[in-house]
Design a protein that fits this description.
By secondary structure, the chain is an all-alpha fold. It has one domain. 73% of the residues lie in helices and 0% in strands. α1 packs across α6, α2 packs across α3 and α6 runs antiparallel to α8.
Length: 282
């Protein structure tokens, strides 16, 4: 009977997720130090008034930056779970404060990437992270779950962004495309429709080349934020949206390579070595 080795996560996948999550929290924290006006409405969802909200923003920002450092240096499993939960909550604050529900969908990278990072960790790996070893899935089911988390995250962030352009004609997106000289009102709709098609393609056939294109597309489109005059931290804040498709592409590639590699039973090798004539003529 063949003895199958546990599936491993390539170190590159770990670092892509760690860097993506760190970028997300660093960008969000640095924006928080500037006390952005829209955040007051988000604090209002929890019943916190305008003045207390502005007093709390730097403390929330400091917590976010601390989480970013932790994700890079020693991503403790409990802290990564917190990052996924906090990312989901901050995304939900947008529709809860009166914005479109697509805003929460578009920010799937904020909670999907930390959740994928949480899945590839296990309880005894605090020291192992520092030594640079790779995570091991307990079984193929856990590997499949992580792939699906990254897959659905990529689908959601494309679908949400596309819907904001195609269905809602979000003014902020219009300013992004205007930075490239595209001033037509139909630009948001065409690009939004293209992103929705990309989301469907990833859902049904997440090929390596397609995911690599999605990664490049997200980086390019989010770079429009600083080009349109927004702080560069807005681009950094979307780190989870860059990490999800890239990590999924490499994780699937590693699984394919393992499936194509021949499985060797160590016991059979011993028996073969001890068989008559295995050592050649005496």
């Amino acid at each position: 009977m063949q003895r199958r080795q546990p599936l491993t996560v390539p170190l590159s996948v770990e670092w892509i997720l760690r860097i993506g999550v760190a970028m997300e929290y660093l960008g969000h924290g640095m924006l928080g130090f500037g006390r952005p006006l829209p955040w007051a409405a988000y604090f209002g969802v929890a019943g916190i008034g305008h003045d207390p909200a502005y007093a709390l923003m730097p403390w929330v920002a400091l917590m976010d930056v601390s989480m970013a450092v932790l994700a890079l240096v020693v991503p403790i499993r409990a802290a990564v779970f917190y990052m996924a939960a906090w990312g989901l909550w901050t995304a939900l604050l947008r529709p809860l404060s009166g914005e479109s529900s697509w805003e929460a969908v578009e920010r799937a990278g904020n909670y999907g990437a930390p959740w994928a990072l949480f899945l590839i960790m296990n309880e005894s790996r605090m020291g192992a992270w520092m030594r640079g070893t790779v995570a091991r899935f307990r079984d193929g089911r856990m590997h499949a779950e992580t792939c699906w988390v990254l897959r659905l995250t990529t689908v959601a962030l494309l679908l949400g962004h596309g819907a904001l352009g195609l269905l809602l004609h979000k003014p902020l997106l219009a300013s992004h495309y205007a930075a490239l000289g595209l001033h037509s009102p139909s630009v948001e709709a065409w690009i939004g429709g293209f992103e929705i098609l990309l989301a469907l393609a990833v859902l049904f056939k997440p090929a390596f080349w397609l995911l690599a294109f999605v990664f490049a597309w997200k980086v390019a489109t989010e770079l429009l934020s600083p080009l349109a005059g927004l702080p560069f931290w807005v681009f950094i804040e979307h780190g989870g949206s860059y990490a999800a498709p890239l990590a999924l592409a490499l994780l699937q590639e590693a699984r394919t390579a393992k499936q194509e590699a021949p499985e060797i039973d160590a016991r059979s090798c011993v028996e073969l070595a001890e068989a008559p004539g295995a050592r050649g003529p005496s």
